[in-house]
């Protein structure tokens, strides 16, 4: 066990580091009227009861907040205040923050502001919180426009760092903490800690208890020495922000999801290192030494190319920045320096890291428009998706009556353009460097498509490529082929057409688009929502006649995979999802009986009642019956009783396709 004593101008307190030391908190909580144990849902389920049992006082109040950086906000803070006020907490009350960086930050902020300030104890459970958030007294909540924008300095009463919590910490969170650990090795004025880390890589990654205790002790000691010299960050404490200027910008772009704080810091340190090298502050060898330490710990440290104006806008949130430069912590002369960096140099470094970048793809379909934003990586003209950042869908009914008059209606085009304007705004706010859009059957079949394409370019600044059905089918296959080991057939039921693609891995054997879709079928056979037996039989016959070609695959051995709304909606209805959860839907084995059961449910209700079914989007309620009829017809024709539902579809395929202007 290790013990450190923090001596700042505002307070002295101890930092205890060891294994199974929670019971040592008892001596610090005897004299408080009321105590709140604050944690989150994840940590609470793992350790809430255990910690309460180890605390001698049995009158401790318990409160859980949702888990995740996105909940470090004003609403969560108000929920904590409300709980404390309703339970008559006073100025002689105490908060124990049991959790990671979010709990430590928001717990400290609540303590610092409740009744103008009460005491709090930090009990960090993640490596990141143990070496960073729990010590030093910086507490905050996030604002939608930036991380930690609302905060204060408030030193804790004590800090208890129990490495036992690390045993259940997910690997991604452990590596997030390592980002801050490695940062401290660059802040130290000597190389002792750097060399310690490099020497003990294997032991650290295997969670050797003795090495972990020593690592955390040295990391905390480095931060302690900085905080004691500069508690309020008027000088060298700014060095603790190494990597944060770029890292915080990236976290904000990703809406504090899909990227850990430590990963953001790691990428930010490499960005700062590249800036330092450009300014001739460090050599190429010194830069590689920094980079290799992250790589040796298997940390993703490569920066992401971001649209430069958005990147600069986020970095400018620091009030000390000027119009033509941004404050950075840089490497210089074997240590660190804080300097203003010209925007042109930041732009240059952003351009250097162009292998990874943010890209958006838009699918303009007959029934809806969909947006997918991802972090992609390009190697030798091959694109892979590193992170899936955002998916959005808007029902626009662009294909309304196209099958009758071959024209896109003005009101349908207006609905679609408004959706694409919103997509363009979202993409810009997320720092997207490249946005591509492909239009399918409705646009493809219309005689006024050129007018529509020009209108979208003028108003939404998105260039549309109208792709043939075969390429649309190929996109669906590309989005799924790497997910399955065996041969698959992808079925993509759309509003105006349905795509089929058969193959295995990189071998695409068949790709075809057929002009049957749920909007088209509804308009032809079910006017005024008339689902008579005669209309249903005529519709099924139409499906069979138009899809006759797929009968040749009836006796082949393959896994049937379905994408898009008709299949995903069936799962969300089966699970009564009030909020759609793609993780629950993805790879769900949807049976013929389940589809038939849903179909019976849909047909038992009129349109207005159907819109109220939990899990069924109200704007899909008028076409879902056609969707299920088509789905059952396809399964009958292919002799399949189950279809695997995939959340990966032609958006993923379009994202990785090198050039969607090639109509092949």
In short:
This protein has 664 residues and is α/β, with parallel strands linked by helices.
Number of helices: 26
Number of strands: 22
How much helix, percentage-wise, in residues? 40-55%
Mean pLDDT: 93
- Can you tell me the residue ranges where pLDDT is under 50 for at least 5 consecutive residues? 660-664
Q: Hey, roughly how much beta strand do the residues contain?
A: 15-25%
> C-alpha Rg, in Å?
29 Å
Spatial strand arrangement across the major sheet: 1-2-9-6-5-3-4
Explained architecture:
The chain is globular. Strands 1-2-9-6-5-3-4 form a 7-stranded mixed sheet, sandwiched between helices. Helix 10 (261-278) crosses helix 13 (343-352). Helix content is 42%, strand content 23%. The longest helix is centred in the first third of the chain and has 21 residues, at 209-229. Residues 660-664 have low confidence and may be disordered. It is built from 26 helices and 22 strands. The protein is α/β, with parallel strands linked by helices and 664 residues long.
Please outline the helices and strands.
Blueprint: E1 2-7, E2 12-18, E3 34-40, H1 41-54, E4 61-65, H2 74-86, E5 93-99, H3 101-113, E6 119-124, H4 127-133, E7 138-143, E8 146-153, E9 158-162, H5 171-187, H6 192-199, H7 201-205, H8 209-229, H9 244-253, H10 261-278, H11 284-296, H12 308-315, E10 325-332, E11 335-342, H13 343-352, E12 356-364, E13 368-379, E14 382-395, H14 402-405, H15 410-429, E15 434-439, H16 441-445, H17 449-460, E16 464-466, H18 469-478, E17 488-493, E18 498-504, E19 507-514, H19 518-525, H20 533-546, E20 559-563, H21 565-574, H22 582-585, E21 588-591, H23 592-603, H24 607-610, H25 624-638, E22 642-645, H26 650-656
Parallel strand pairs: 2-9, 3-4, 3-5, 5-6, 6-9, 12-15, 15-16, 17-20, 20-22
Antiparallel strand pairs: 1-2, 7-8, 10-11, 12-13, 13-14, 17-18, 18-19, 21-22
